[in-house]
Structure formats: C-alpha cells, structure tokens
Amino acid sequence: MNKSALRRQLKSARNAYSPAARRKAARASLRLALRHGLLLRARRIGVYLPHGGEFDAQFLITQIQLMRRECYAPVLPQRGRVLRFARLARDTRMTRNRFGIAEPVDARPLRARQLDLLLLPLVGFDHQGFRLGMGGGFYDATLAFMRHRRSWRKPRLVGIAYECQQVESLPHDPWDMPLDAVLTERQLYRYTSRQAL
User: Fold this and answer.
1) What does 122-176 look like in DSSP terms, one character per residue?
2) Which of 44, 84, 167, 176 has its CA 20 to 30 A from that of 109?
3) Is the pTM here over 0.90, yes or no?
4) Crossing angle, helix 19-35 and helix 58-66, to 10 degrees?
5) DSSP state of 27
C-alpha cells in the first residue's frame, strides 16, 4: 500500500475514537510516560498542539509544565519547511497559523537541535520506528541535520499515537528519520539503543 492510501486508512482508524476514548488513551499514555521516566532526562521538550484527530498531547504538556521543564511548540516558517519551536507556558500569547493550528508567539524560537526531547504527532508508525506524517515534509526538513550525525542524536524523537496506528512496515525514503520510541495508550515502544530513554 502506498503512503497516500495508508494515510487515509490510518486517519480513519484514529478518527473513529470517541472523545471519551481519546481522553482515556491520553491519561493512559501519561501514566506510561511517567512509569518509564520519559520526561526525566530532558530540560527542553518540544511538543505539538493536536489538530485534526491527532493524539491529544495536552495531559503530557501539562505534566511537562508541572515538572518545570521548558516546553516548546512548533511554529511554521514564513518560507520553507524548517520548523522553529516557541516557548509554551500557561500565559503564552497564541495565534493560528495558515493551517489553523495554534502556535505560541515567541520573538526568539529555538531550532530543533536545541531541544533535548521532541514529541511528534504521526499518522502511522511501524515496527522499525519509521513514522508516517501528514505528508507536508515539515518534520523531515526540520530534522534533516540529524542524518549527518554519527553519535549523539539530540533531540530524542518520540512519536505519540494510538495503538491502532501501528502497522507492520511503512514505505520509507532515505531522508526519513526513524524515531527513538513511540508512546501509545498501551506501550512505550523503543527502537534504538543509541540513547537511553
């Protein structure tokens, strides 16, 4: 199955979750994140603000802020595809980008390489840790610098998804950056031994 067909199938599966099931899954994923110490070693954590059926990361965002970690959300560039990450706090002023997604307003957003941990939305993921996104290429462009690294790969990349979004294998391209882990409502899947999670 090609990427477009997979996107349609997997988006349909995640959109089938009721609001109550979404809240239950979000709480379960937070418990797993805490049990596995996912947030402990990171000071600067990149998150996403859910849109269009994406896994609700708000419980994780609240926990990050309660733990007094620095929380950052993506900001679309005026041109190109490389995202920056703006500080997200309870009193942060917000705006909407051209896709209607909320973004924090920050005069000096960070580059991805300045983050310790990046939580990414996804449409699908496979047993090798490859991620299927929405197809815009924003995260591919943002994380392109990581393909040239030989050792430490900061930030650690953790996808956030429903269990139903997992498939055996995804078609992937040479520029696709595999994830270090995926957190679902049932499990924290780890894919690499290059870093401790």
Assistant:
1) -SEEETT--EE--SS-HHHHHTGGGGG-SS--SSEEEEE--GGGEES-----TTP
2) 176
3) yes
4) 40
5) H
